[in-house]
Write a structure and sequence with these properties.
It is built from 12 helices and 25 strands. With 428 residues, the chain is of the alpha+beta class. It has a 5-stranded antiparallel beta sheet with strand order 5-9-1-10-11, with helices on one face. It has a 4-stranded antiparallel beta sheet with strand order 21-22-14-25, with helices on both faces.
Length: 428
């Protein structure tokens, strides 16, 4: 193979990557290539791709969506000390299990952090035109993506530093990500919103926690979905408490409290935590109960840990049952800044909520009674209304300024695609 057929990118690792079963590994070609191929299919014009794609076989002219190149990945230097990302055998940030063991018969931890000073990604390409496209797009692809377990919570982030030993001039992540967000379109309109959270210096005195990108992501996401206590000061959930619901409706968390209370279970500790009065607390479910948190990441169960029999399991009876729905929010740490970018995929949210409802089952007294909670339509509960300018977060930002600052970098037009419509094959 001629040297001229090779392109080598040197990547700087920003956050550790987590791999399953205790494997101290870095980027994997089996993950990187299919995702980069998908990205190239998005950004390269349809007419320009003809001679760049692989064929199904030597005797068949039919092409596939994979591009004609190979990848080799090399780790540079030793796996760096990751103690700064560990506390009490737990990984900091939005990973909520301990390290554990990969199996009963193994002392290997179930998850292992890997952090290398640099990673080399070598492309072997025979087509000069494809080589030019890779040089143009691969750095932008890496800026736009994270890898490994919990990748959507900021883990496994790498930034390109060099191409063939020449330094790359990457100065403004925000502008590049804004540019790329326009490529994610349905019916010629972008469905990817770009937002930003910044660490508040006031937090040092408030929560005595030093800045770390992964902790900022974890805490913001928890405040967003469920609310959070900081030194006995409760920060209200943006989705559950700050969003205004229509009359005779409520979210799934309040509904689960009503159910437990109706079963004679003492929920005083839950009501006291949120400053509610038992006297004024509803005794029966309202007409409409909406399952809202699932739209930003589905969990198969919920549990009130301080309440006996406070666990609910979830199952969908409409459409395909799902065990997992990855959050449509991707967090991108900004190096050299105490800030993180949020990429919100609104199309993914709509795909989750289309004709969807869930059975919530509480096994109190082994009755296994089912309660049907619907995933609300856009007009009943708008995720976009949470993130947009003058939306829920923006209008309530004074309440959270001692923890984070929020801004809109590039918003979408309000639902530019047909809700529930089937996407055409050739539409990006």
């Amino acid at each position: 193979m001629f040297e001229s057929n090779k392109i080598t990118f040197t990547l700087k690792q920003v956050t550790p990557i987590i791999h399953f079963k205790g494997e101290k590994d870095t980027l994997r070609g089996t993950d990187l290539k299919p995702r980069f191929d998908k990205f190239l299919n998005l950004v390269i014009d349809e007419k320009e791709k003809k001679d760049l794609l692989l064929k199904k076989s030597k005797d068949n002219n039919e092409q596939i969506d994979a591009f004609d190149y190979k990848i080799k990945i090399s780790k540079i230097g030793k796996n760096l000390n990751c103690n700064q990302y560990l506390k009490n055998r737990k990984i900091i940030g939005a990973y909520f299990g301990d390290l554990g063991k990969s199996s009963k018969d193994s002392d290997k931890p179930a998850y292992e952090l890997s952090l290398y000073k640099n990673i080399d990604v070598e492309f072997i390409v025979n087509n000069d035109r494809l080589k030019a496209e890779i040089k143009k797009w691969f750095p932008k692809f890496m800026i736009f993506n994270t890898f490994g377990t919990r990748k959507n919570k900021g883990y496994g982030y790498f930034l390109p530093e060099k191409c063939n030993n020449k330094f790359l001039n990457i100065t403004n992540l925000e502008s590049i990500i804004k540019e790329l967000s326009d490529k994610y379109c349905y019916k010629s309109k972008s469905y990817l919103g770009v937002y930003k959270i910044e660490f508040s210096e006031k937090k040092k005195n408030y929560n005595n926690k030093e800045f770390n990108h992964l902790n900022l992501i974890k805490d913001f996401h928890q405040i967003l979905k469920s609310g959070m206590n900081f030194n006995k000061v409760y920060k209200k959930s943006i989705m559950l408490k700050q969003y205004k619901y229509s009359e005779n409706s409520c979210n799934e968390k309040k509904a689960m409290k009503i159910i437990l209370n109706s079963q004679g279970i003492n929920i005083d500790v839950l009501l006291n935590k949120s400053g509610q009065s038992k006297k004024d607390f509803p005794k029966k479910l309202p007409q409409n109960v909406y399952y809202v948190r699932g739209m930003l990441g589905f969990s198969p169960f919920y549990e009130f840990r301080k309440i006996k029999n406070g666990k609910f399991s979830l199952k969908s009876d409409v459409g395909e049952n799902i065990e997992r729905f990855e959050s449509p929010i991707q967090y991108i740490p900004i190096p050299n800044e105490k800030a993180v970018l949020l990429l919100v995929n609104y199309k993914k949210i709509e795909e989750f909520r289309t004709n969807r409802e869930f059975n919530f089952t509480n096994n109190q007294n082994n009755k296994n009674k089912k309660y049907i909670f619907k995933v609300p339509t856009e007009d009943k509960y708008s995720i976009h209304n949470i993130f947009k300018e003058n939306g829920v977060i923006d209008s309530k930002k004074d309440e959270y300024e001692d923890y984070f600052q929020y801004s809109v970098i590039k918003d979408i037009e309000e639902y530019p695609y047909g809700i529930g419509e089937k996407e055409d094959k050739n539409v990006k």
